[in-house]
Amino acid sequence: MRKVDGLLLECMGCRKMLPRGRFYKLGKLGKLGERWRGRCKECEKPGKSARNSLRRERAKGRGTYSAAEVRRLIAMQHHLCKLCNRHLGITGYHVDHVVSLARGGSNTLGNLQILCPKCNLSKGAR
């Protein structure tokens, strides 16, 4: 946090120069003066931070798919795992994103594949 003449503080969230009244006070430091939070009251509100909004955007996943579409995708793959060709009726299956949601992938059918649990869990965070 940067002070200007003791009246204005720079918010670490929105990078605006704001009066001290727009920040939460942390307490006194004796002779050193007062301590203020690094982010203004507006940036401290729940759901206002860039990190929270990014997390919410990723959780939405940009797109949807239904159980019927998953069944159709399994049929298109002939009930076989996309990586190891094991039969999904025996091993079970996981719906996997080719490009993960965290890396900007979507929840649409074009970005989905059906894998056996062993293959999906061995992929990790690739």
Task: Summarize the helices and strands and which ones pair or pack.
Layout: E1 3-4, E2 8-10, E3 17-19, E4 23-28, E5 34-40, H1 41-44, H2 50-60, H3 67-76, H4 88-91, E6 94-97, E7 112-115, H5 117-123
Antiparallel strand pairs: 1-2, 2-3, 4-5, 6-7
Question: Any descriptors?
Answer:
126 residues, alpha+beta, DNA Binding (I), subunit A, 2 domains, three-stranded antiparallel sheet, two-stranded antiparallel sheet
Descriptive notes:
It is a single chain. The chain folds into two domains: 3-50; 62-123, DNA Binding (I), subunit A (Orthogonal Bundle). The chain is of the alpha+beta class and 126 residues long. The protein has a three-stranded antiparallel beta sheet with strand order 1-2-3, with no helix packed on it. A two-stranded antiparallel sheet has the order 4-5. A two-stranded antiparallel sheet has the order 6-7. It is rod-shaped and about 75 Å long. The protein contains five helices and seven strands; from the N terminus they run E-E-E-E-E-H-H-H-H-E-E-H. The chain has helices at residues 41-44, 50-60, 67-76, 88-91, 117-123; strands spanning 3-4, 8-10, 17-19, 23-28, 34-40, 94-97, 112-115. A hairpin with a 6-residue loop joins strand 2 (8-10) and strand 3 (17-19).
